[in-house]
Description:
- The structure holds two protein chains of two kinds.
- Chain A is of the alpha/beta class.
- Helix content of chain A is about 30%, strand content about 25%.
- Chain A folds into two domains: about 25-80 and about 185-255 and about 345-400, FAD/NAD(P)-binding domain, CATH 3.50.50.60; about 115-180 and about 255-340, D-Amino Acid Oxidase, subunit A, domain 2 (D-Amino Acid Oxidase, Chain A, domain 2, 2-Layer Sandwich).
- In chain A, helix 2 packs across helix 10 and helix 3 packs across helix 10 (about 370-385).
- Chain B is globular and about 45 Å long.
- Chain B has a domain at about 60-100: Folate-binding fold (2-Layer Sandwich), CATH 3.30.2270.
- The longest helix of chain B is centred in the middle third of the chain and has 8 residues, at about 45-55.
Amino acid sequence: MQKYSIMSLARQALNGHRGWQPAWREAEPKRRYQVIVIGGGGHGLATAYYLARVHGITDVAVIEKGWIGGGNTGRNTTIVRSNYLWDASAALYEKSLQLWEGLSQDLNYNVMFSQRGVLNLGHTLQDMRDIRRRVNANRLNGIDGEVLDTQGVKRLVPFINTSPDARYPVLGASWQPRAGIARHDAVAWAYARAADALGVDIIENCEVTGIRRDSGRVTGVETSRGLIEADRVGAVVSGHAGVLADMAGFRLPLESHPLQALVSEPLKPILDTVVMSNAVHVYVSQSDKGELVIGAGIDAYTGYGNRGSFRTLEEFLAALIELYPIFSRLRMLRHWGGIVDTAPDASPIIGRTPVDGLFFNVGWGTGGFKATPGSGWVFAHTLATGQPHDINAPFSLERFHSGALVDEHGAAAVAH
Amino acid sequence: MSTVPRPWRTDMLTIHCPWCGPRDETEFSYGGEADIARPAAPDGLSDAAWADYLFMRTNPKGWHCEQWNHAHGCRRWFKAERHTVTYEIRVTWPMHREQP
Ligand SMILES: Cc1cc2nc3c(=O)[nH]c(=O)nc-3n(C[C@H](O)[C@H](O)[C@H](O)COP(=O)(O)OP(=O)(O)OC[C@H]3O[C@@H](n4cnc5c(N)ncnc54)[C@H](O)[C@@H]3O)c2cc1C
Ligand SMILES: [Zn+2]
């Protein structure tokens, strides 16, 4: 692997930048692998990387139907935080946040992780009680957090509308200073490059169309480029979880919904943190290019169309203008949607399925980008050993039989 | 019953309420997958069978049979067959009738 550094940059500059090599090989599928990962989003690529690096399993293929990072990884608003309510989620998202903190060094790739803090606004007394409870729970789990009042919010975001006659007055917020944002494409490319360097095959433009089974055990996958066999298969396909489950003959407690976002024309620096609001379904941050990155809640109906409805768009832009009147004359540049797989308890499903040797890592819904490193870490363990890691054990599919749900609606239902 | 033509190019859905006719999407609320029958004898069910009723969904990529409520209109429930990729609604019909 060509190492990226100030020295290599200087060397390449001197030679007209003609010596850069592709960041990963264009691999041809082999007939058989030890492990196949379906889905070349951040989670699938991270899984492959940790399989190779932590578990020494390099006979791995990542199979992606389009281009890597072309799913939700490249469509999300990149908020990274770990201030979830329950112990099980705190462990999962905090493991992730700790990996984020060293990720650029570990992968030798600048993923532009910027710990600029995240505010979750409270607009009612009950919001504020829930925020206090969540921040207390976070602190007991060693996760940083503070409860801010209206003035505290105003100090961080001077132009936010805090007038008491706002439709949803800002009563305060939770504040996680270590939270922030990252560069989404870079995360996919960095994991792909690092996994490829360890011998993983990254196979793009290859769609899985069937799951081969023999007496209840997975034997491989049928793809648009032929049959590929494997001892173990992990599906990390976000919005297409239900489609893959159907191929394997079972159902999941998931429904796929469109989720949209948009970016504005570039502005001078105005917002140096991330502000989210569950109650009015809007959240915003400013990218390094100066664009405001604005997101919303899911469309109410299910759907696999990569676009969001006008109805939702209208609602979240109204909320945006109410909270930030200063943005009322901004023009929007781009608008897109992704397909998110939402679970009844707003928590992911990571582990075994009814088919032996077939594992799923899905159900991340509206908020899985932040979990990319941690999800890959625990899923690599699961695929390598056949057993869940302590951290993902509570996120099994069986929890829907036992009733031990991990209800994160307060922390995750709308928020990302 | 009413059959719905392919929606013309718009991002807002036009939904045919079986009672009120074509109305704008914003008048409706979504009621999820249709025909999930509550088991007649829940006491006798295994946890897995109960979970199947309560949580598991078909979530198809394609035609989906689902429930809608004309919340800001006649407030009646009905069923629809909608395509989850194109969002075309092929047909809607009253809750108590068979699918036309
Ligand atoms: C608008 C929007 C905003 C969001 N904002 C945030 C946020 O601020 N913070 C946050 O934490 N999360 C956010 N999310 C959620 C987050 O994007 C996802 O949870 C996360 O990126 C999922 O990563 P993944 O790698 O599992 O999925 P993806 O990146 O979607 O990767 C799955 C891959 O599987 C491939 N695939 C599917 N079917 C097949 C098949 N049959 N064969 C081969 N390949 C297949 C797809 O092409 C895709 O590339 C947001 C999502 C959206 C849509
Ligand atoms: Zn009606």
